[in-house]
Each structure stands twice: as C-alpha cells, then as structure tokens.
Prior knowledge:
Layout: E1 2-5, H1 13-28, E2 37-40, E3 46-47, E4 55-56, E5 70-73, H2 85-96, E6 100-103, H3 107-113, E7 121-122, H4 129-135, E8 140-141, E9 148-150, E10 153-155, H5 163-174, H6 176-188, H7 193-199, H8 234-242, H9 250-257, H10 261-272, H11 276-294, H12 302-306, H13 311-322, H14 326-340
Parallel strand pairs: 1-2, 1-5, 5-6, 6-10, 7-8
Antiparallel strand pairs: 3-4, 9-10
Amino acid sequence: MVALFALDGVPAPQLSTPALLFGAASRTFYRRPPYELRVCAAQGTIATAPPGPLRITPERGLDGLADAGTVLVTGYGDCPGPPPPDVLDALRAAADRGARVATIGTGTFALAATGLLDGRRATTAWSHAPELARRHPRIEVELADWPVADGQFLTSAGVLGGKDVCVRIIEEDHGKEAALEADRQLFLMLPNPSDALRATSPTPHAPHAPHAPATEPPSENSPPPEPTPLTPLTPTTTWLESNLHRPLTLTDIAAHANTSVRSLNRSFRVHTGLTPLQYLLRARVRHAQWLLEHTDTPVEQIPTRTGLGTPANLRHHFQRLNGTTPTAYRTAFRTLVALFAPPPAPK
C-alpha cells in the first residue's frame, strides 16, 4: 500500500505521475501483487498549484496513512512553511511504526519540519536546497540527480513529477529490472487490451482468428501468467494461458471448466467483465506483446505461437487493442530499452 499524501498546492504532475508509474509497474509484475495507491490529504478538498489550479477531493484523510507501507509526500509550493501539527504528527506516527516515508520535491520541507531528517542526508528541488539547509542546519542537504536514501527515508528533487522517486521505490521493492521495465511501460503508454475488450466487441467486419495448428507451446519463450485474483475461474484461465496456441472453442473451454457454455459465459462476465472468447483474444494479444518485447521471434511466426492464425489477424487485433502495429511496437520498445538500460560496466 502506497499512501500518496497530497498537500495543498501540490503540482498536478505529482499526483498523476505516481498513479501512472505504479499502475505501469503493476502491469509488469508477474506472480507479485500489484501496487495499491491511495490518495490522502489533511483536508476534504485541496487545490493544485497554478497555472490552472484544480480542486481535488482525496480518497482518504490522515487516517489513510495509518496502514500504508510507504507514505509518499508531495511538494506544496516554493520553499513552503511547515504543514499543520496534525500532519506532522501523522508523518511521525507513520515513521514510528516503520513505514518508508518518501518525498517529492518540496515535500522534503514537510518531512524536515517533523525533525525526522535531523542528522540525516536529504535532498529537494535544487533551486530550494539552499533554503532547506538554512532552515534545517541539522540536515545534510545534497544536490542529487537521484533520490537520496537514509534509513527509512527517501527524498528526491521531484524530477518529472516524482518519477525519479517512484522508480526508486519500485527498485527497492522489486529490483532494478522491475523498475526499468515499469519506466519503459510508462513511456510506451499503450492501452490495456483488457480495457479495450471491455469497451468494444469485435465488429461484424473484423477478421477472426482461424484455428491455428495444435503445436507444442514454447517452453522457454512463454511469459509468466498475468497476476489475477483467485476466483472459481482460475483453473480455467490458467489453462487458457497455457494453451493459447491451440484452436480453442467455447465448447472446449466449457468442457475444461466442466460446465455448460451458458454458465461459462455468465461466470466469465461476472469474474472478468469479458466473454470467454474476448478473454482468450486478450490473452493472445498480450502473449504476442510479450514475444515482441522479450524474444527475437519473427513477426510472421507470432500468429502461430499465439493462436492468432495469420499475420493479417495479428496486425488487425494488435492494432485495434494497442493502437500500433506489431513491428512498430517492437521497434519502439527496443528503442526505449536502449534508452533506459544502465551504462555498461567499465572494463
């Protein structure tokens, strides 16, 4: 649980960036629970910083910090004064019970006002670092390109709306590879095929995937299963994910689930929001996306590997659900991999 604690005057990107990045991270995590992000504030309504301030109604008040494993404090102005005493008490209480407390930009001023950073290293927006050092001489203020960690506290300059500190949190939780992957996913910003399938149904003119030949599924080039809550459908959806290459029909799926086609449709609607065939198509497109990202499988071979049948079907469904072609997606992804990959170690 990450509690995004928004102070009045927060720059709007510091609300949207954590939501986008932790959301991207959750989509990349396999066999791990996704992040839950909760927006909290000390008052019922807050305003974002100008220009064009927005009125925001947070999900929770200060009580939302009580059970969070991470509290992420937003910025709230240029060299701001200390927040109200109840805010300082809530931050101290979170730290006392062992929560990780992180800050974005001038949010460091709020954390500094608690006294929790005394004797520790910290950073903030570079232009405000001298004022932070003047007000809090017991803090060792650093000008850092990357968030500064000292114990359970993590402070940052707030680059790109807090992207830097969110990536660091993901790295601490799940490792550098997961953090880099989430960063890439954020910049790719592809729509979720699940959302697209919920919003649309195949049109009468859309080509449908023909039955692909029943070949053995790839053993080492298969993605891990997508994290989903355990439901009565879990054995069936797990089986589907393992048999995407096969020509599956509604009757096949119902037989595996040991139920009627009618009951199968109803159960899928209840637990996934999709019909069984929509779920199957979504899983095949997601598998194609994974192969494009993580393997050198030629695009012409991916339809057979995923059960999409033909290159034309692959292009049609991939374009409809992801807004781009398979080849363009692979090129864009690899460009971003090169951009975000760490530099090679010196020889």
